[in-house]
Amino acid sequence: VFGGRGERRSGEKRERAAAASVGATMPTYNFKKITVVPTGKEFVDIVLSRTQRQTPTVIHKGNSITRIRQFYMRKVKYTQQTYHDKMSVVLADFPKIDDIHPFYEDLLNVLYDKDHYKLALGQINTARNLVDKVAKEYVKLLKYGDSLYRCKQLKRAALGRMCTIVKKLGPSFAYLEQVRQHMSRLPSIDPNTRTIIVCGYPNVGKSSFLNKVSRANVDVQPYAFTTKSLYVGHTDYRYLRWQIIDTPGILDRPLEERNTIEMQSITALAHLYAVALYIVDVSEECGYTIAQQATLFHSLKPLFVNKPLVVACNKTDVRKLEDLSEEDRKTIDDMVAAAAATEAAGAEPTQDMKDGCFVTMSTLTDDRVVDVKQLACEKLLTRRVAQKLNTRKANHMENRAYVAVPRNRDAVERVPMEHPARSGIGKQTKITYPQKGARSINGAFDEPLYVSHDLEVPEWKGDIIPEIMDGKNIADFVDPEIDARLAQLEEEEDEATRRLEEMGDMDEEDPMTAEQLETLNKIKIRKAKAIAEHRANKSTGRNRSDIPRTAAAARRASRPGRDEEEEDRGRKRKRSLSRAGAESVEGQEIAVKRQHSSRSRSRSRGASVNYEVQPGEGFKDKVQKMKAQIFADKAQRKRNKQARKGEGDRHIPDLKPKHLFSGKRGIGKTDRR
User: Which end of the chain has fewer CB within 10 Å, C or N?
Assistant: First the structure.
């Protein structure tokens, strides 16, 4: 017996803990962030196109077999990983039925059929596992491929099987895309916040009430079932945010016969802890009598259990409550009594309870609409506060808070007294507190300076000294000897001015003569020309091309005033006997032995290189410049052999010339991948 009790208690504890954990971790889903689901064909095209772009595309049969295997294994693995990642995103974005709030669970079941929804997600999960399995098998086979052709065929087979698996998921992808589009249009409802649910027959004024008390803008029309889904509006009461849910109209018929529109209202009433506002149309313009509306109310009573309930009679501007017949009035009283009974929890409801559950209003004239909202909000706040006080956590906090109250131990009156060791002798020292204007230094207060001033009237100590008085600066009259000091400063300035004038007279020199001025001007002009020439040579001197020797010689020949010596030098530049091996001594030519007689002509000599070090080249001397040129020539030889233009030439010849691979494909050449 005791074991059974213990097990029962532990089971209840586990249920409470599970319920608390579920309630604490229930997320509010934002269905607008779900990724778009492509169709089966689009899915295949996306993955294969990405594989083609992100993996190498050129392999030659001359490469090693290890490289060929790695080339095709990489394609298979990349395709499998892309399929896996994209399917995982789809599975992660869509909410799992078992992990969400019961309200969303039943709402998804009503709108999309829970079994079909779970089946579609299960098929995608199975396809993901199959793709991983196919890729693993073909990677194992590719490790033993003995030729490029066999590896290529294995790769084709692997990608083909994976694409076939994905194409078979076309209906599931299309269904999930339709679900995603519909879910993105659902309102964002928080199941755990303060909520008011407006319910009743169609066309009784539910949407009008929502538009009046919140910032929502729901379509209102004079016919039934204008509202076909849940609408949410938000309002403020006591500095708290409230959500008001407008539900579609409900008809009085069995649960099995209700359609999807009505089942949304039933789902909200069944799973959301909120105050239920049941609106009754007393004018009967909605097309249903008060008796029919009362019958619907009593059929929905199981959904009102443990919820605050308010009955509101609408359209009182058309028909007053006093104009109702006794039968209709009694029907409304029975509804109010039933609403108060749900709040009394089995006890006999009092008249105050009945009055707190019933109110009249008119959404057309705004009569008592705000009172209905305040009454519903107060009832829900009262219920939530009572529930929090009844929890174990509230009692636990009250038990932890302890206030100690001293009790008298006897009837003797004891007056307060000071300890002798602490008492002072004679007059106690007066405690001084920081006064206005005191400065704080490291937490200690320093008294202002004016406290110690000795003035004729002690009350003058706290006065503020002005800066300007009678049009004069008071700071100028603080020093009594200021006039004497000012006179002394003026005398010192006069003395300094006199000394400067004397020194200026001594430094004066005789003016320059006309000849000296002319010489100075020539020096200045020459200096300016030198500066201009230097700047011209520095800016453009190194940028102009060198003049060829032939052009230079022709220019010199055309120059007037050319002397005989220059003409002789010019003739010797031509091919002559002296160039062929003769020397001239005092006008006579002497034959000299010709060298390299075995050759048909004299040895050719390339253009001479000027190794003179120019300023700014960075070389120490001619030898260093010559070595640098030799090293540059050696470095260029290898690039010359490779037909490279220089170090920056990175051109790669085309391995597939267009003239060989363009045009109409022949038989058996339809392989594009």
Answer: N
The set of residues, in sequence order, having a beta carbon less than 8 Å from that of 305 and lying 6+ positions away, is: 342
What are the beta bridge partners of residue 243? Answer: 195, 234
Residue with the bigger pLDDT between 559 and 451: it is 451
Distance CA 387, CA 554 (A): 116
Please tell me the distance from the alpha carbon of residue 456 to that of residue 318, in angstroms, as a whole number.
Answer: 89
DSSP state, 590? E
Is there a contact between 171 and 119 (Cβ–Cβ < 8 Å)?
A: no
Q: Which pair of tokens denotes residue 74?
A: 């990489």
Span 244-289, pLDDT tens digits: 999 999 988 888 888 899 999 999 999 898 999 999 999 988 889 9
* 3-class SS shares of the chain: helix, strand, coil, % to 5: 55, 10, 40
pTM of the model: 0.53
Compute the distance between CA of residue 467 and CA of residue 475 in angstroms, rounded to an integer. 7
In 508-544, which ranges are continuous DSSP H helix?
514-540
Cross-strand bridge partners of residue 235: 242
Residue 524: count of CB within 10 angstroms of its CB:
10
Give the whole-angstrom CA distance, residue 179 versus residue 555. Answer: 92
Q: CA 464, 468, 471, 473: dihedral to nearest 10 degrees?
A: 130
List, as one string, the DSSP characters of 151-208: HHHHHHHHHHHHHHHHHTTHHHHHHHHHHHHHHHTS----TTS-EEEEE-STTSSHHH
From residue 349, alpha-carbon distances to 255, 334, 357, 380, 648 in Å are 30, 12, 11, 18, 96
Distance CA 245, CA 267 (A): 12
| Cβ(307)–Cβ(274) below 8 Å | yes
Residue 516 CA to residue 522 CA, distance in Å, equals: 10
* pLDDT bracket for residue 24 (50, 70, 90): very low
The helix (H) or strand (E) run that includes residue 234 is: strand 231-237
If 0-12 CB within 10 Å is exposed, 13-18 middle and 19+ buried, where does residue 655 land? Answer: exposed
For the four alpha carbons of 224, 226, 228 and 229, in that order, the dihedral sign comes to negative
Say if residues 120 and 176 touch (Cβ distance below 8 Å): yes
Question: How many Cα atoms are found within 13 Å in the side-chain-facing hemisphere of 585?
Answer: 5
The DSSP-derived string for 84-120 is HHHHHHHHHHSPPGGGS-HHHHHHHHHHH-HHHHHHH
- For the chain, the farthest-separated pair of C-alpha atoms sits apart, in whole angstroms, at 161
Q: Which residues pair with 241 in a beta bridge?
A: 236
Residues 92-139 have pLDDT tens digits of 999 888 888 888 888 888 998 889 999 999 999 999 999 999 999 999
Q: For 371-408, b where at least 16 C-beta lie within 10 A, e where not — what string? A: ebbebbbbbbbebeeeeeeeeeeeeeeeeeeeeeeeee
140 burial (CB, 10 Å; 0-12 / 13-18 / 19+) is exposed
Distance CA 14, CA 46 (A): 48
Instruction: Say how far apart CA 436 and CA 542 lie, in whole Å.
Output: 80
Residue 314 three-state SS: strand
C-alpha–C-alpha distance, residues 491 and 474, integer Å = 25
> How far is it, in rounded angstroms, from Cα 177 to Cα 34?
10
Structure tokens at 421: 């060791």
Residue 186 CA to residue 303 CA, distance in Å, equals: 23
